[in-house]
């Protein structure tokens, strides 16, 4: 079916996921195709037709709706259709019934290119918990991958991956947090929630920390409700951060300075500031930063970094207990949440984010 | 300047004594007239609505000019009323102070006390101490005893000065070069372009100060282009202009190594001017 507008898209997706509640289909090896996946992608002045990657064959078509686009992808025998909803020009929604691994690979590679002007939303533990508020909790996933230091016999937790199902899952998370050995390794990487508008229509969505929602059930409406719920909260925080970015304005009297720094408060002390920064500036994986460090003293360093997502500058000061973050006006606030969320995932899940101007953010 | 601005901000690991009294930075390098109608240009103007008070600060390094002290001595409330962001500027009172990293010799102190009498704030590695007295009792109380600061001052509000160590200037300049190439897709640049983008106060510097900055940055880029960055940067013949020739991630790694070496003083490849 050729999709030309939102109504047709809705019907097509509804038809697709309705099979996900049919138990006879669960033996289908391609059961994933009945799951509706939505990726939220942040765009900085990028056009949907620029969402391409040389590793994939693709064709792009705009529908009768100027904010709805169809991207057909193929690579070898793999194929997928992605519907890009760009009605919010800063945060797009990419819907697909395509195979998760295949589309995940495309989205991550395309977003992760240097100067792509695209990014994932970075949902920290508090944001995922908030997404679950008012919904029936079905479970959660914890994932901690230490990217900062070599493990030794004294490292309490090297890597941690855990999936818990059931309505009491979050209570168990509370109990786990009481354990000193693992308290800094308990970052949520996904939360499973059920949303329904009535008894018959529902969706069970897995909301991941990089802004992917994977739903099965029979209600596209419920799925889209959850997508918008996550997005609304994220947009509000980005707005707050960008409004508080540091700016300098010259007038006839002098130079006005507005905005302030942000602080990531660490519960787990950094033992070697120099090694920590070297890992942070590797440009690889999620942090997407390169830059220069200067050790001011043994326990304190300044960092002049560049966000590879847009090329904007990001300045940091790092001690054992905190990271000061200076975001310049005009820079993308996503870099602050990317840094914070990935610190939670790869170093200290108990880290908190504050603004000098208005206090605790997370 | 960073240390002072930090006092009016919420930076962990650095005291926020001015913020706690309600002060915020109204202006950096404000310009206004004193009681004699002469122009004065202190470094920072703070104000606190809570105290209906302004604090004028001049940061000094080594030299104290008598003529400048005389001009500051005739600053009046009237000169400040339309320059501050106080909600009720007509009710304001004000103090001025001189801030410095090192103690002054007795001769300089005597000169300041005779001509101006403002309090002096000394920022050492881990504390702030004061001489003379603030008129505002809240300020006086806060600074009466030395304030322990620790050694983690904020450094990014005013990113670098022309007098800073090469390492500090180099890291800002290399950062700006990489950012400019990625963000603005500009691969050819000169020191003026990089400075105008990297220093938020560039437009307010006079021609002489701009010249000092440019000389220092030309030397840093020029020296490293000939050595460590020769694979990554190319000098355009006959101009003080350079062009990026290699992938940025490799350039960033090399820049990081240079800053590291400069900060450790393991070598001094850049001649000081």
Q: What is the assembly state of the chains in this entry?
A: heterodimer
Distance between the termini of chain A: 44 Å
Largest sheet of chain A: 11 strands, antiparallel
What is the share of helical residues of chain B? 25-40%
Mean pLDDT of chain B: 88
Q: Percent range for helical residues of chain A?
A: 10-25%
Total helical segments of chain A: 7
Global outline of chain A: globular
> What structural class do the secondary elements of chain B suggest?
alpha+beta
Total helix count of chain B? 10
Topology:
The complex is a heterodimer of chains A (362) and B (273).
Chain A: H1 6-18, E1 36-43, E2 57-62, E3 68-75, E4 78-85, E5 91-96, H2 100-111, E6 118-119, H3 125-132, E7 136-145, E8 159-165, H4 169-177, E9 188-196, E10 202-208, E11 212-217, H5 220-243, E12 247-250, E13 255-258, E14 262-265, H6 273-280, E15 289-297, E16 300-307, E17 313-319, E18 322-327, H7 334-346, E19 352-355, E20 359-360
Antiparallel strand pairs in A: 1-5, 1-6, 1-11, 2-3, 3-4, 4-5, 7-8, 7-9, 9-10, 10-11, 12-13, 14-18, 14-19, 15-16, 16-17, 17-18, 19-20
Chain B: H1 2-7, H2 17-20, E1 23-28, E2 32-33, E3 39-40, E4 44-48, E5 53-60, H3 66-73, H4 77-80, E6 93-100, H5 106-115, E7 120-123, E8 127-131, H6 137-144, E9 147-148, H7 166-184, E10 188-190, H8 191-198, H9 207-226, E11 233-235, E12 241-244, H10 248-264
Parallel strand pairs in B: 5-6, 6-7
Antiparallel strand pairs in B: 1-4, 2-3, 4-5, 7-8, 8-9, 10-12, 11-12
Helix pairs in contact in B: 7-8, 7-9, 7-10
């Amino acid at each position: 079916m050729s999709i030309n507008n939102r109504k047709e898209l809705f019907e097509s997706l509804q038809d697709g996921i309705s099979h996900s509640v049919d138990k006879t289909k669960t033996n289908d090896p391609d059961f994933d195709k009945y799951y509706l996946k939505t990726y939220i992608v942040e765009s900085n002045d990028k056009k949907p037709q620029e969402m391409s990657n040389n590793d994939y064959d693709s064709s792009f078509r705009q529908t009768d709706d100027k904010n709805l686009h169809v991207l057909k992808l193929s690579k070898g025998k793999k194929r997928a259709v992605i519907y890009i909803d760009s009605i919010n020009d800063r945060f797009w929604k990419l819907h697909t019934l395509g195979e998760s691994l295949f589309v995940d690979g495309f989205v991550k590679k395309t977003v992760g290119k240097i100067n792509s002007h695209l990014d994932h939303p970075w949902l920290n533990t508090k944001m995922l918990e908030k997404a679950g508020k008012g919904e029936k909790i079905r479970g959660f996933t914890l994932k901690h991958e230490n990217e900062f230091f070599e493990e030794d016999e004294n490292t309490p937790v090297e890597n941690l991956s855990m999936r818990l199902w059931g309505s009491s899952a979050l209570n168990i998370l509370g109990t786990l947090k009481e354990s000193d050995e693992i308290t800094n390794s308990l970052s949520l990487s996904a939360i499973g929630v059920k949303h329904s508008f009535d008894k018959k229509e529902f969706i069970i969505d897995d909301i991941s920390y990089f802004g992917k929602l994977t739903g099965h059930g029979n209600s596209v409406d419920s799925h889209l409700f959850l997508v918008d719920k996550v997005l609304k909260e994220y947009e509000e925080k980005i707005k707050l951060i960008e409004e508080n970015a540091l700016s300098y304005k010259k007038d006839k009297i002098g130079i006005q300075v507005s905005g302030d720094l942000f602080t990531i408060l660490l519960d787990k002390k950094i033992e070697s500031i120099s090694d920590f920064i070297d890992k942070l500036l590797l440009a690889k994986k999620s942090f997407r930063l390169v830059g220069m460090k200067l050790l001011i003293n043994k326990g304190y360093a300044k960092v002049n970094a560049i966000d590879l997502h847009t090329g904007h500058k990001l300045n940091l000061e790092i001690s054992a207990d905190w990271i000061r973050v200076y975001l310049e006006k005009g820079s993308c606030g996503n870099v602050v949440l990317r840094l914070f969320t990935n610190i939670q995932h790869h170093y200290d899940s108990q880290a908190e984010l504050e603004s000098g101007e208005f206090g605790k953010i997370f | 300047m960073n240390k002072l601005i930090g006092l009016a901000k919420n930076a962990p690991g650095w005291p926020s004594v001015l913020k706690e009294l309600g002060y915020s930075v109204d202006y950096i390098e404000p310009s206004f007239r004193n009681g004699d109608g002469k122009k004065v240009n202190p470094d920072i103007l703070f104000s606190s609505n809570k105290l209906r008070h302004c604090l004028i600060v001049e940061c000094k390094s080594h030299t104290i000019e008598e003529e400048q002290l005389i001009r500051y001595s005739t600053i009046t409330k009237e000169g400040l009323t339309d320059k501050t962001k106080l909600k009720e500027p007509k009710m304001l009172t004000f103090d001025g102070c001189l801030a410095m990293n090192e103690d002054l010799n007795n001769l300089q102190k005597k000169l300041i006390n005779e001509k101006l009498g403002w309090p002096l704030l000394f920022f050492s590695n881990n504390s702030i101490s004061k001489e003379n007295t603030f008129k505002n009792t809240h300020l006086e109380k806060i600074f009466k005893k030395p304030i322990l600061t620790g050694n983690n001052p904020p450094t990014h509000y005013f990113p670098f000065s022309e007098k800073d160590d090469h390492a500090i200037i180099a890291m800002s300049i290399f950062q700006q070069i990489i950012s400019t190439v990625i963000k603005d897709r500009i691969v050819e640049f000169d020191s003026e372009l990089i400075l105008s983008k990297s220093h938020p106060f560039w437009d307010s510097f006079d021609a002489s100060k701009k010249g000092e900055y440019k000389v220092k940055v030309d030397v840093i880029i020029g020296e490293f282009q000939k050595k460590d960055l020769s694979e990554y940067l190319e000098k355009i013949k006959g101009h003080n202009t350079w062009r990026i020739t290699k992938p940025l991630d490799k350039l960033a790694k090399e820049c990081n190594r240079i800053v590291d070496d400069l900060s450790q003083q393991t070598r001094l490849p850049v001649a000081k001017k």
